[in-house]
Every structure is written in C-alpha cells, then in structure tokens.
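We include this case.
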Amino acid sequence: MPETATRPSNGFAKFDLHPNLMRGIQNAGFESPRPIQAATLPAALEGSDILGLAQTGTGKTAGFAIPILERIVRDPGHGPTALILAPTRELASQIADEIRTLASCTRIKGVTIYGGVGQRPQVAGLRQRPDIIVACPGRLLDLIGQGFVKLGNIQTLVLDEADHMFDMGFLVSIRKIIGHLPRKRQNLLFSATMPKEIRKLADDMLNDPTVVELPSTKPVDLIEQVVYPVHHRRKVRLAQYLLKNDDVSRAIIFTRTKRGAKALADKLERAKFNAAALQGNMSQNAREKVMSGFKSGKYDILVATDIAARGIDVSKVSHVINYDVPDTPEAYTHRIGRTGRAECTGKACTFITTEDRQILRAIERRIDQEIPQRIIEEFLQCDDPDPRSRPQRQQRRGAKSGGRNKVQNGRKPAAKKPQAKPTKKKSDSNDGRQAAAKKKPTQTDKAKRPTRKPKSVAKTTTGGNRPPRRRKQSAAGGGAPKRRSR
C-alpha cells in the first residue's frame, strides 16, 4: 500500500498540488506526468496562457484539467468559473469523464453541454451553478441566447482540438462565445495542427502565451505503419483478411462517408464480425450505446468517419485501418493517433488504390518518412469485369432486348414511332378540313334531314293528329302551353 501511494507523488509532488487532487490523480492511475503534462503544468498553475501543439493521445486533457481543478479547490468561486470547448460530443463526454475522475475526492461539480439530445437536463445542471462547463460551441451558443448560461465569472477558457473545430465551421461561434467572457481570464489553446486561421485566433486570444510544442508531424514511434495496394473492388475482402489473420484484438476502421461506414459495418457483421458503425446521422443515445459497447468489448471493430471518431479515446486499440485514404495529411495523423496510446504498440494499415498515389506522397512528405508497402497478389486484381467495358455491354444488351421486344410483343421500333405520329397528325388535320368543306352542303343535309322530317310529316299527314303541345313547347324552348284561339 505505501508503494502505490508514493508512485504518483514521485511524479506530481513537485507541483505542490492539493492533497485531495493528488488522491484523484492516484485514482486515475497517473504515476508520472507525460511530456505534454510536464511542460504545461508549471506555466498553467501560475496562471499563464498556454499554446499547446501536440497530436492526439499525448495526455493533454490532464494537462489543462489539473490546473483548473487546483485553482478551484484552492479558491472556489461562484460558478461556473471554467469553460472547456470541444468539437464533438464524444470528446466533450470523455473530457468530462476524466475531469470527474480527477475531481473524485473534491466537491467540484461540472456539466456537459452538447447537441443531439434534449436540453432540459443540461439546463437543470446549469441551474445548480457548476464549477466547470464542458461544451460544444453550437449548443452552448443556443443556451446563451436563451439566457440559461451566464459566463461573467469565467476565469479559465480552454479550446481543445481547435484545428478540428475550425474544420467543422465553429470558428465564428467560438468568437461569439468569447465575446460573452470577461476580458481578464486565463486562456489555454491546444491543437494538433496550426492553420493560419487558428494562428490568427491564437494571436487575438492569447496574451504572451507559453508555447508547448511536441512533435506533431511524425507519428508515435510505437505505431507500425503499412500501406496495402488494393483494387478498389477488393477492399472489403482485404479488410476481412486483415481482421482474421493480423492478430487484431480491437480495431477502428475509417471511411470517408457516413453511408460507407454503415455499409461496411453491415458487411462485416454479415461476415460474423462484431462490428458497429459510428457516424454523424446517429442519435446521441445510439452513439453512446455504440461507444459503450466498443469500450466494454461487445464490439471488437468500430467503423467510423473522421468527424465521429475524433473524440474516441479508447485504450488498447491494436489496429487502425484506413479503408478510405484521408483527404489531408493532418487527418492521417489524427486517425493513426487512435492506436499506440499509453505506451502501447499499435499498427496503422492504409488501403491505397491507383487514384490515391498523390495523397500518399503528400502524407509521406508530411511525416518525413516513406511508409513501407505490403503487397498481397490476390487483392491487386478483381475477377469482376473492368468497369470501363460496362457501357459497351449495356449497349449490346439494349440492342438485344429491343429485338426481343420486337419479336415477342410485336411493337414497332422506338425510332419509327416519332416519325409516324407527326405525319399522321398533319395529314389528318389537312384532309379533315378539306373533307368538311366538301361534305357540309351535300352529305350531311341528305343524311340528317330526311331522318328527322319524315317523323313529323308522318304524324301530321296520317290521321290529322297534332303532336302534343308539351312536346311543341319543349321543342320551342319550354314554358307553359298556351291555348290557341279558334
């Protein structure tokens, strides 16, 4: 027991943290600070602004959570006093979970705010005046507009994965939220990459920051990277082959689209793999169910898109498979960062088709190394016909099918129909006008008048009986019959 108590103190004792916070760090299993934490904690505990440049999976959550908890436990104020912004719901939930573990021996309260679920529980949590708010920018801005969130007492602002929030279009919302904060505050900004827009935001927001930069262009040394050339029609079979034969314990497969993630997960599930899809169209309850199942081991394989998987922090992920090549080298770094965490080894497999060679070269320039290729002959070619020959086959099939219809149904070819219709209409219209002009004075009078007149003549001449008056009146236009004077 004394040994376990001294292990975390050997690493974190030099920071002179509160005893209750030290017990929380011990409960979290932290024995010594990781590089990003050792570089961030001294300046952050002094109240300085921080600009952290580090890739995912380096432990930066504890790097900004521990200073916030230390300040609150030493000097609790009227909450909320700390605001943490994250790009996705999953990342916000994981940040809140880690803060909850570190603050387990304190009375610090927090609330998590994100969209996709009802806002009533979140509003109820805000009314309890929590110390820390972990939020996604969209829902937080909505609640600010409704008057449920008051940010006048915020002393610390954290932007986690700022580059990803920029990619998702949250930069305008972030600036609006900053407008509701007091000007005097501590700012911490963490990002894996530094686009010019994020650099401008950092220059506007940070005041003489302490820059903590870890190598972000090169992947973690514990990750083995392999490229698999593959025919685009053989990707599913190659994925199944690797999952069966590459000693995979837990894997994340990345696709480019939400529909592709769902389709691939269904195919793997039909092939008797414990796979589940995680994509943006799912409800929050469904996403949480999938994530909890992946963490607990119910699902061994998670098929996800870049946006949905950005907040995934699951330990012991043995493989990351890039089913579709990422659009940018930065996205490649984020993807493979899901494995090789917490001093564990991992493997990153990338499927490359002939169309993906250019982005592969960009990725290799970015990480400053050449990724080795592993060729499996059976997946380089496809037994299916070449897609470039399909239009010819469709034309021949259309010709055959047209012949069959002609024989079986006795229909005229489609090309003759539009020629026959306009000629018939024109000839009918011209001939009809000429025939009408000739037949009106001759045939119609002879055909119609003799049939009507003999009836009336027959009644008057034979028997001398007059037709009924009502008939005469109705024929004349109706009205009451009038007696004739004799």
